[in-house]
UniProtKB/TrEMBL annotation:
<comment type="similarity">
    <text>Belongs to the KHG/KDPG aldolase family.</text>
</comment>
<protein>
    <submittedName>
        <fullName>Bifunctional 4-hydroxy-2-oxoglutarate aldolase/2-dehydro-3-deoxy-phosphogluconate aldolase</fullName>
    </submittedName>
</protein>
<comment type="subunit">
    <text>Homotrimer.</text>
</comment>
<dbReference type="InterPro" id="IPR013785">
    <property type="entry name" value="Aldolase_TIM"/>
</dbReference>
<keyword id="KW-0456">Lyase</keyword>
<comment type="pathway">
    <text>Carbohydrate acid metabolism.</text>
</comment>
<dbReference type="Pfam" id="PF01081">
    <property type="entry name" value="Aldolase"/>
</dbReference>
<dbReference type="InterPro" id="IPR000887">
    <property type="entry name" value="Aldlse_KDPG_KHG"/>
</dbReference>
<keyword id="KW-0119">Carbohydrate metabolism</keyword>
Amino acid sequence: MISNKHKILDAILEQGMLPLFYQDSEEGSVEILRTLYKAGVRVFEYTNRGKSALPNFKKLKEIRDAEMPDLYLGIGTIKTPADANAFIEAGTDFIVAPIVNPAVAEIANKIGMLWIPGCMTPTEISVAQEHKAMLIKIFPANILGPEFISSIKDLFAGQLFMPTGGVEINLENLKTWFKSGVCAVGMGSKLISKDVMSKGLYDELFDNTKLAIDLIKQSK
């Protein structure tokens, strides 16, 4: 039987993109989730970046269970065991982190949950591998660039990488990333911009999400 961990990883690879955002507004968060889903997103990361993250996540989980049973809903920006436990209790499907915290890895591994740590150096990647990271987030990717992936991928043969930060909805940019050896890209503010959130530009978000999915298919 394929574990949930593998199913979620396969869904990220299939989608080729992991959209992520945080917004204080519960209503806004729900609308963005619905828009992403309508545009074809089936794996999504809400980020733990503000005081409303936990209550908003619980609401998103409720909406997901009622309206989008085939959507995997994960939580990002998990830096501590306390955060990991709080969101696991709230029903997250997977955990994304900006750092490698072995204590968080241990919690996720114990329950067979997908844990995607953020790494910036070969040493961090090595530590993440020691703690069974199947997919590693290269962060901040706008600082490291596709050349970093090209340079280190042979050192870590078979490891799956996903850059987050600086990935654009642009065929040339996406092709450069996929050519460097990534298997998916994280899409934050370039997709779900401050304008989209503050002005409720959900039609624009819908169009851009469909475009991003299409460009990623062409880039792989």
